[in-house]
Predict the structure.
Amino acid sequence: QVHVVESGGGLVQPGGSLRLSCEASGFALHLDVIGWFRQAPGKEREGVSCISSRDGNIYYADSVKGRFTISRDNANNTVYLQMNGLKPEDTAVYSCAAGYRGPITLLPRLWDDSREYSYWGQGAQVTVSS
C-alpha cells in the first residue's frame, strides 16, 4: 500500500522561507515523477513544480520560478520543495503527488495536470501573512 506524507508547512511572513518534504512508503519516489500542487481557498488546484527521474527534467509554474526549488534525496526517498521569497498569494494547501500515469513524452504538457497522478498526500498548510 502506498502512503504519501507532506510535512514542513506553517505560518511565515512575506519574504520568508519554508521547506516542504514529501515522503512515501511502499513507493520509490526517486524512480518516478513527483509533483507538488497547491490549492488556495476558492481556487482550483494548480501545479507548482515537478521533478522527473524518468526524463531527468524539472518543471515550475511561472508564478514560482526563481523562488521555489524542487529537489530529491534518493537515500531517504524524499522530495523537497524549498520556497523562498514567499508572498501572501502563495498561501494554500500544498500537496505532493506521485504515480504519474501519463506518457513520459507528454510530461512537459501534463506535469501540472492533477488527473495524471495516482497517489496523494493529505496536504500541508502554508500561510504567508504579516
In short: The first helix runs from residue 107 to 110. The helical segments are 107-110.
